[in-house]
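Re: that backbone. Tokens:
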């Protein structure tokens, strides 16, 4: 009987053992945090030693604030991977890129001008090294003319702020816990996540963004301010554009607990029939990961509209270009197909 991971596959050509990769760390995250598996069980599944798993858990252990506002220690694959990548920088620059200045310039242009991620660059250029090589060399400097953290966002885990004020609770039936299973497993098109991308001034214009969970279809609407009324007007505008198809295109929308999204009754109500046009749900407080698709899409927007930009002066035509770029962006998760390519096949 074979395990999910065969320990023979973790051996190098020299007979040693490979380090844990990010996919394995994600597996550990699920097994340890959700399935409550012991280090010994995880080690058996991965074909590793229990000592290796214990070291890995220690590397990625963080404190997490639950929906009940209880601090709980959990393992984070991202924190562990960042720690591993940092430790690997002591080895010096990866010579797979070497002195090929033409290749370095081509990679720089893809990242800086075309706003591609290293993963997409590796695929488009058919490189014989992985995206992690590019990321590590950017972080270490000396090869690429790219400032770390500016062009490519870093995953940073901020300290939990225990002084935050919790908003009034939404009705229980509006919790993400009651969202249809087809929305949770992304099996059906039409379940969206929403948020606002703010500009330089908190009172100025901002972007109302919607991301479809199954295909990552993106909609970006410029609104005059960060208020619930402006959000409702944006949804009303969308309903007028789509007409009767709005109800089937927008089966549900999941928001965070911000005050700009609290008028759920008006967001759900059709301006044409006065009936129900969609279903609104709310993620748990301080759990942005429950709207991860939209959070990642907003990071893509930031490649073209960086933080601190005054959105008041940005034209709707430019915003539409950014929206089109996202929907035509080739994504590793879809086998390097774009959202528009996937929608065309539905």
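Recovered sequence:
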């Amino acid at each position: 009987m074979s395990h999910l991971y065969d320990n023979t596959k973790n051996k190098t050509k020299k007979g040693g053992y490979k380090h844990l990769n990010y996919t394995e760390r994600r597996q550990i995250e699920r097994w340890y945090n959700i399935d409550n598996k012991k280090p010994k069980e995880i080690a058996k599944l991965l074909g590793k030693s229990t000592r290796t798993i214990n070291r890995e858990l220690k590397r990625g252990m963080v404190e997490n604030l639950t929906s009940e506002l209880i601090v709980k220690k959990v393992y984070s694959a991202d924190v562990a991977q960042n720690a591993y990548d940092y430790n690997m920088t002591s080895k010096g620059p990866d010579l797979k890129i070497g002195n090929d200045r033409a290749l370095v310039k081509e990679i720089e242009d893809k990242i800086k001008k075309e706003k591609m991620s290293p993963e997409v660059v590796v695929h488009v250029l058919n490189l014989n090294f992985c995206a992690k090589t590019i990321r590590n060399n950017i972080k270490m400097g000396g090869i690429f003319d790219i400032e770390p953290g500016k062009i490519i966002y870093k995953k940073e885990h901020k300290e939990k702020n225990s002084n935050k004020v919790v908003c009034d609770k939404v009705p229980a039936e509006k919790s993400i816990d009651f969202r249809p299973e087809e929305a949770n497993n992304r099996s059906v098109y039409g379940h969206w996540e929403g948020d606002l991308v703010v500009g330089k001034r908190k009172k100025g214009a901002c972007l109302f963004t919607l991301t479809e969970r199954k295909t990552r279809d993106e909609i970006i609407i410029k609104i005059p301010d960060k208020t619930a009324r402006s959000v409702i007007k944006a949804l009303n505008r969308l309903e007028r554009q789509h007409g009767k198809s709005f109800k089937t295109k927008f089966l549900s929308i999941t928001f965070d607990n911000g005050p700009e999204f609290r008028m759920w009754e008006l967001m759900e109500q059709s301006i044409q029939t006065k009936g129900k046009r969609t279903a609104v749900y709310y993620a748990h407080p301080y759990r942005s990961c429950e709207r991860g698709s939209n959070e990642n899409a907003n990071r893509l927007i930031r490649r073209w509209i960086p933080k601190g930009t005054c959105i008041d002066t940005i034209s709707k035509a430019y915003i539409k270009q950014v929206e089109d770029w996202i929907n035509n962006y080739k994504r590793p998760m879809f086998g390097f197909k774009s959202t528009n390519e996937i929608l065309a096949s539905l």
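The CA atoms of residues 110 and 249 lie 33 Å apart. The radius of gyration is 22 Å.
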